[in-house]
Automatic annotation (TrEMBL), chain A:
<protein>
    <recommendedName>
        <fullName>Trafficking protein particle complex subunit 11 domain-containing protein</fullName>
    </recommendedName>
</protein>
<dbReference type="Pfam" id="PF11817">
    <property type="entry name" value="Foie-gras_1"/>
</dbReference>
<feature type="domain" description="Trafficking protein particle complex subunit 11">
    <location>
        <begin position="172"/>
        <end position="406"/>
    </location>
</feature>
<dbReference type="InterPro" id="IPR021773">
    <property type="entry name" value="TPC11"/>
</dbReference>
TrEMBL record, chain B:
<comment type="similarity">
    <text>Belongs to the TRAPP small subunits family. Sedlin subfamily.</text>
</comment>
<dbReference type="InterPro" id="IPR044760">
    <property type="entry name" value="TRAPPC2L"/>
</dbReference>
<protein>
    <recommendedName>
        <fullName>Trafficking protein particle complex subunit 2-like protein</fullName>
    </recommendedName>
</protein>
<dbReference type="InterPro" id="IPR006722">
    <property type="entry name" value="Sedlin"/>
</dbReference>
<dbReference type="InterPro" id="IPR011012">
    <property type="entry name" value="Longin-like_dom_sf"/>
</dbReference>
<dbReference type="Pfam" id="PF04628">
    <property type="entry name" value="Sedlin_N"/>
</dbReference>
Length: 1054, 143
């Protein structure tokens, strides 16, 4: 817009001229300047200067001297409008003093002649005349003089129109268009300045329609398009600035006078868009002209062409010495000039700028589709300019709209292509990446050519849109494998491209690089060099061609020496020397999540035949540790016994591997999960709470120092131990013994694991051997004890009698009597046990209260107790003058029996004895008021009468009334009272005697005696065991000594 | 001369679009049709401006572009008919008449029980009928 002269762009400025009364001029011009809008003034001090306004005598004389041939008359001169601002006023004010007008007639005549001369000058100029009377108020103004004055000052209107036909055709059209352009511009500016937007738009439309068809000659048509483009651009700019400054929004009055105007014509963007359209028309027309005409070497004529004084005319400047002359141009010269001018500009940039303006303007108005069209055209421009980045960005952004509105099939590049188009496009791409020679000549694509330094690698995973190109599924056929063993791996490739893809080489990469391998295409040998991978495994496949939507399945053996996870990372397909597609490997098990699967219903078959592999096939496999060639043996026999130190021999035997830096880990775990120790194991008082304890580890048998060096035992805790194993050669063995002690009967699981490295290399892998053994912990011996009075002597203990009904836990012993303590030990295990001693030991400081304790000696030789059998020992004691019997602990010294080894003194000495202690409860001792003694011969003989005495001793100082009963017995005939009441004197004894005759032989019950002490209301019955006697059928014959033995045995067998 | 006619669904999805030019400018015409939807939207969204046209199906001249004029017609079901013509001087009555006949043809086409509403109109009969209407455009007033 700035290229137009200022007088066209700005609103009109009025120019007023004044003549006469020069003393008043400054006053008036200051006033005019301050007016809104300001008015310029041209002050003529004297009437004689009026000739300045006189028209040049161009058209006053018919005989115009012929114009020099160099200059052609035009339509509009360049200063056509400018002169109205500086030279030719719109109005001329003639200032007359009132006294001159209304004074004497001579002065009036002067005024009249002045007016006449003014009128003759301004008539040709269409200058309005204002007659100003300077009136001081003193004179009288007569009406007739005023009428006369008006008559004198009367002016006619005058209009001019001109058309020139002097110029050659092309230039003539150019001139006309230039002139009309300027006039149109001026008119539109004026209309917009006055806020008449609708009129302005209508005017522009009329202007445009009038000239639209005036395309001119075909070779100059680009001038027309350029002109049209400029019209639209300029009007768009005008509209934009006016709407910006004035905030006028077009009043839409459709259906009325401006019914043919649509609201779109009020958007500046609409004009920009069309300007761009016509500019592109101009470009193509210009290109056509350039291609048909030979390039002109005549640059002189072109260089010297300048605009001439008339609007839209051009002339050649001729310098003849000091004189500068203008030469008219022929059409050919003018065309050359125009073409060379046209070449200087890059229309694409201009078009893009215009479209961008329109695009942004439409977008800001939320007019999406128009904006999209502008964007589309802009993208095309960018693309033809080679700016693919910008082009793609724009295409992407507008494609969204086209996709949304379902226009993809109709709008070509914006939407997805049809299958055939896709195939074509993909083929082109593949030709490009495979560096097909056919395309190398194509210059347009030379910047896309892939070379060594511009190699291309595509990263494809399932999420990427390129997953259409290729996806790779990898499945190991097994879940675990031994190191060094072979398993199979299936690689399945699928391409969803509409045409076949030929792969030159596949590279399958794993997380263990040593497993990577290549698959080369047998049909394209050596197409891809594997120069740096000579040591790598290369497989050959007969065909590596991917049919559309068809799986290519390859199965290969694979092995790994490294234990741990082996995962397939990616499958790289190489096509051509510099193009690689790197597919992330996927597991078939993740098939469900494949978006490709969901999208396409064209899976022909599942890639893997094995159904299980389809569901669970993984791209990872667990490589196990190498098979250990070392044996760990745990040699424990039988259950462990509580209290003893149980030895578990551990033997490490190497059977093929050397053992380096071996380490044994030992763990004791409660089988039932109850825990072997209290949580606070570090507290000293909690030591007891360890039910099972790992005490230590002793070294191999036969070593001098049976305990291992402290540095070998790295750590021994209550339930955990760590020992280092010395270096073992193949075939060697090493052993140690674990010392475990049970405090409670509890089964535990012993875990022993050996970790070692088979060779001494730093990076070699650890091999682990695990062994476990469940060991029962058992109580070895059950200890029982009870007290016994002498035979057939029963004291009446009142407290016992009282509590008999409740419980007999707290037994009382009679005072001043001999008492027997019988200790029985039962072997609860399934092993024979040796007993060394059973003794009663005082516990700490507590003094033993009993006197005359007998039987506290060791056995002469250890006693063998078979499994399940009992062993009893009898202690005798007397309880004289004490109230409480405190004995202390029962100590049992024992160990398991080792059978034959027991004989050898050496082993017998080695094995430690186990001491088991059990506290004997304290016993109350009390004085029995009555003691019943049954006296009877040790045996009886059938039919031989004997006397049965019952002695009742009263130990109290009181008279005791006793009621007694003697029941009949089957096997005996008796004489004497069955019932009676007797009185026993204090501290004396009463004897009842019966004569009995045995009627049957064998062990027979004596007649049952029972009595009641009236004083204590205590019934009393002697124990049944003391109430029987053996009846021999005839008098036996045995020695006296034997009779004592018999008695001992009978006690032991109780 | 009519160069392009189109039926556009209520979600601005093209249902039928047919150009009648020899030149290979189908894409351009499609763009013009597509852009005209902006104008239709504008008219529908700003009923104040359109005033008396509120209940009228004929939208009149949507916009002139390059050498074309675009006319629009909006049915009660928000289906748009678009007409692109190269004629500079078009009688309103002709356009109205055209749209009326075009609308009738469309109603007949979508009344076909095999037509899925909202899908493209593939009926050959409809295409032939539209082609006849297009050919007779401008002649009807003379008859």
């Amino acid at each position: 817009m700035e290229e137009y002269p200022e007088e066209l762009r700005t609103p009109p400025v009025t120019l007023a001229a004044m003549v006469g009364c020069a003393d008043l001029h400054p006053l008036i011009s200051t006033h005019f300047l301050s007016a809104q809008p300001p008015i310029n003034t041209l002050a003529l001090p004297h009437l004689s200067k009026i000739y300045l306004f006189e028209r040049k005598p161009k058209d006053s004389n018919a005989e115009v001297p012929p114009l020099p041939p160099t200059v052609v008359g035009g339509i509009l001169k360049k200063d056509w409008l400018l002169k109205h601002r500086t030279k030719v006023p719109a109005v001329l004010g003639a200032l007359f003093r009132a006294e001159h007008v209304f004074g004497d007639p001579a002065q009036w005549n002067n005024v009249c002649s002045d007016l006449d001369s003014i009128k003759t000058v301004i008539r040709g100029r269409n200058i309005k005349l204002a007659v100003v009377i300077i009136h001081t108020g003193a004179e009288e103004i007569t009406e007739d003089k005023m009428i006369a004055l008006r008559k004198r000052a009367d002016v006619d209107a005058k209009y001019i129109v001109g058309v020139t036909t002097r110029l050659p055709a092309i230039q003539r059209l150019v001139e006309i268009k230039f002139v009309s352009e300027q006039l149109n511009f001026k008119i539109c500016t004026l209309l917009l300045h006055s806020g008449k937007v609708t009129e302005s738009v209508a005017w522009f439309r009329q202007h445009k329609n009038a000239y639209k068809r005036l395309v001119g000659t075909p070779e100059a048509i680009f001038l027309h398009w350029e002109w049209m483009s400029r019209q639209y651009l300029v009007f768009g700019e005008l509209l934009e600035t006016s709407s910006k400054t004035a905030q006028i929004f077009p009043p839409i009055t459709l259906g009325s006078a401006s019914k043919l105007l649509s609201e779109w014509e009020f958007h500046p963007a609409y004009y920009y868009q069309l300007a761009a359209h016509y500019l592109s028309e101009k470009r193509s027309a210009l290109e056509l002209v350039i291609s048909t005409t030979e390039t002109s070497s005549d640059t002189d004529t072109v260089d010297s062409v300048v605009p001439s004084t008339y609007v839209g005319q051009f002339a050649r400047l001729l310098e003849l010495g000091d004189n500068v002359d203008m030469m008219a141009l022929t059409d050919e010269e003018y065309m050359r000039y125009a073409v060379s001018e046209g070449r200087r500009f890059r229309d694409s940039l201009e078009i893009i700028a215009l479209l961008k303006k329109a695009y942004e303007s439409f977008n800001s108005g939320n007019i999406q589709r128009m904006a999209a069209l502008c964007g589309f055209q802009m993208g095309k421009e960018y693309f033809s300019e080679g700016d693919t980045d910008n082009a793609k960005q724009i295409f992407d952004s507008i494609a969204i709209l086209y996709r949304k509105e379902g226009l993809q099939r109709d709008t070509g590049p914006a939407g997805p292509a049809s299958l055939i188009q896709r195939e074509t496009v993909h083929k082109e791409v593949f030709d490009l990446v495979t560096e097909n020679s056919a395309l190398e000549t194509n210059e347009q694509l030379s910047n896309l050519k892939i070379t060594e330094d511009k190699s291309l690698q595509l990263q494809v995973d399932l999420a990427s849109p390129l997953s259409l190109v290729m996806i790779a599924l990898v499945a190991f056929h097994e879940q675990t494998m031994k190191p060094g063993s072979l398993t199979s791996i299936s690689v399945s490739l699928l391409s969803n491209l509409p045409h076949t893809v030929e792969i030159d080489q596949l590279e399958i990469q794993f997380n263990q690089p040593s497993c990577n391998f290549f698959v080369s295409n047998a049909q394209k040998p050596q197409s891809v060099g594997v120069t740096d991978n000579q040591q790598r495994r290369v497989e050959t496949s007969t065909s590596l061609t991917l049919e559309p939507n068809k799986w290519l399945k390859l199965t290969y053996d694979i092995t790994s020496d490294q234990s741990g996870k082996l995962e397939c990372l990616s499958v790289i397909a190489k096509i051509g020397p510099h193009f690689r597609i790197c597919c992330k490997a996927e597991s078939p098990a993740s098939l469900d999540n494949l978006p490709v699967w969901a999208l396409d219903d064209c899976i022909q078959s599942v890639p893997i035949k094995d159904n299980i592999l389809v569901l669970s096939g993984q791209k990872t496999i667990q490589v196990e540790e190498p098979e250990p060639q070392v044996d760990v043996r745990l040699g424990a026999f039988g259950p462990a016994l509580v209290g003893e130190i149980f030895l578990v021999p551990v033997t490490v035997i190497s059977k093929g591997h050397d053992v380096y830096s071996g380490e044994l880990k030992i763990n004791l775990v409660d089988v039932r999960g109850g825990g072997l120790f209290s949580p606070r194991e570090n507290e000293p008082h909690a030591l007891d709470s360890h039910h099972v304890q790992l005490l230590g580890i002793s070294g191999p048998e036969g070593e001098e120092d049976s305990h291992l060096d402290s540095d070998k035992i790295k750590q021994v805790q209550q339930s955990f131990g760590l020992i280092s194993v010395p270096f073992l050669k193949d075939g060697d063995s090493w052993s140690c013994k674990l010392e475990i002690k049970w405090h409670r009967p509890k089964p535990i699981m012993l875990y022993v694991s050996l970790g070692y490295t088979p060779n001494n290399e730093s990076n070699s892998q650890m091999v682990h051997v695990h062994k476990n053994l469940q060991i029962e912990g058992q109580n070895a011996i059950e200890l029982n004890h009870h007290y016994l009075m002498p035979f057939r002597r029963d004291p009446l203990i009142l407290s016992k009698n009282k509590q008999a009904s409740e419980s007999d836990l707290s037994q009382s012993l009679p005072l001043n009597q001999k008492t027997l303590l019988i200790v029985s030990t039962k072997n609860c295990t399934e092993l024979p046990i040796r007993l060394k001693s059973i003794s009663i030991e005082t516990e700490g400081d507590v003094e033993r209260t009993c006197s005359n304790l007998h039987g506290n000696e060791e056995f002469s030789s250890p006693v063998l107790v078979a499994p399940g059998r009992e062993f009893k020992k009898v202690f005798s004691m007397s309880s004289d003058n004490i109230s409480k019997l405190v004995l202390g602990n029962l100590c049992l010294t024992w160990r398991r029996d080792f059978g034959v080894e027991e004989q050898s003194a050496s082993t017998a000495a080695t094995w430690p004895w186990v001491v088991t202690k059990q506290k004997l409860p304290d016993m109350d001792v009390e004085l029995p008021p009555l003691i019943v003694n049954l006296e009877c011969p040790p045996y009886a003989i059938l039919g031989d009468p004997f006397t049965y005495y019952i002695r009742i001793l009263n130990q109290t100082p009181l008279l005791q009334e006793i009621k007694y009963t003697l029941a009949d017995a089957q096997s005996f005939v008796l004489s004497g009272y069955h019932n009676d009441t007797i009185y026993v004197l204090p501290k004396s004894e009463h004897i009842l005697s019966y004569k009995l005759v045995p009627l049957a032989s064998g062990l027979q019950q004596l007649p049952r005696f029972s009595m009641t002490s009236v004083r204590y209301s205590a019934a009393y019955q002697p124990s049944t065991s003391s109430n029987s006697v053996f009846v021999f059928p005839s008098k036996p014959h045995f020695k006296n000594a034997a009779s004592t033995n018999f008695r001992v045995e009978s006690v032991a067998n109780e | 001369m009519i160069v392009c006619v189109a039926v556009v669904g209520h979600q601005n999805n093209p249902l039928y679009i047919q150009s009648f030019t020899e030149a290979d400018d189908a894409l351009k015409l499609h763009h013009i049709v597509h852009c005209s939807l902006d104008v239709v939207d504008e008219r529908v969204n700003n009923p104040k401006k359109t005033g008396p046209l509120l209940n009228e199906t004929f939208l009149g001249l949507l916009y002139p572009i390059e050498n074309f004029k675009v006319y629009g017609y909006l049915t009660n079901t928000k289906v748009k008919f678009i007409l692109v013509t190269t004629d500079l001087d078009v009688k309103d009555a002709d356009v109205r008449n055209f749209f009326r006949r075009f609308h009738a043809a469309y109603v007949d086409a979508v009344s076909n029980p095999f037509h899925v509403p909202g899908k493209k109109i593939t009926s050959r009969t409809f295409a032939e009928r539209v082609s006849t209407i297009v050919k007779s455009f401008g002649l009807s007033s003379a008859v």
